[in-house]
Description:
By secondary structure, the protein is mostly helical. The chain has 17 helices and no strands. 47% of the residues are buried. It folds into 2 domains: 3-251, Tetratricopeptide repeat domain (Serine Threonine Protein Phosphatase 5, Tetratricopeptide repeat), CATH 1.25.40.10; 267-358, Alpha Horseshoe (Serine Threonine Protein Phosphatase 5, Tetratricopeptide repeat), CATH 1.25.40.
Amino acid sequence: xVRARAGLLCFLLTLPLLAWPPTAFAKVLPDxxxxxxxxxxxxxxxxxxxxxxxxxxxxxxxxxxxxxxxHFFWAVEIAARMMDAEQDSFSPAFSIQLSIAQQLAEKELKxxxxxxxxxxxxxxxxxxxxxxxxxxxxxxxKGYWFGGLQAGLKAKKNFERALALDSSLGxxxxxxxxxxxxxxxxxxxxxxxxxxKDEREKGVEQLIWAREKGYFSxxxxxxxxxxxxxxxxxxxxxxxLTDSLAAAYPEAKSPLWAKxxxxxxxxxxxxxxxxxxxxxxxxxxDYSQSGFNLVECRxxxxxxxxxxxxxxxxxxxxxxxxxxxxxxxxxxxxxxRFDNLTEIYKKSxxxxxxxxxx
Length: 358
């Protein structure tokens, strides 16, 4: 998974979602029983048990096809599976469920507005915020920067409306925190000035709040916070949060991407190699992988081996990374990675030649 997209993934709530034990009353949704089942499905998604999560969300949608939250959470699971494998074959199913969720939510809000009862369902504005967040990432993935910005602004507006109606909806701060941090992070080189504020610190504060007060998205906020802290070079705190995610989901791959990156940024190459070796083992055991993540992981591993002086192993990873069959789209996306692999290969060969006895 390309780390430059980490912030966008966090913004979409496709990173791990921790299912915290439900209390005797609903925290976000009107229906306490369904809320608890949604949490159970998100727990399966967080643990990367996608088949189990998919089965549960299918049954919930079948039981109440008119509930927009059911369709939305099913879309979340599909998106998580799609991103985990870098596999676009799930895209049609994701788009269908997200569109149904949006249509149902908009229909209900229109009815409530006519009856002047919008205040009764702040959760629907939270839902629309998340839906527009997904629309934003879709636009970005297609290369439509302006369309992504427009969708992001609609997401922000809905999150703010949800909080205006119910200030206890801590999950909205996850969306707002990601919006403020990653908008500023991605545009800081050419937009941030006296006219456009740098809101990265504001975003971090909102993510901390979501981590403490959110219900559906405490762990998503934690994951978002990890990548924000990495961008800010606050590696110690990022490491502690990553360790908490790894402990909660010991078999999940997502925390390993963050952990390996932290070691890489700190120049701890042996530790980085150990993490990416374990990640590679898990990726190779996952039949759904498209090959994209395998190339990316082996590229990270080759870099770690080279910098730790393990040149033969670096060569092996460079060769293995170039052996995968990839779609033309993924080849294009991985161009910089392949260029880097070529450079590491040449430098490793040179280092081996220099170390050979005369």
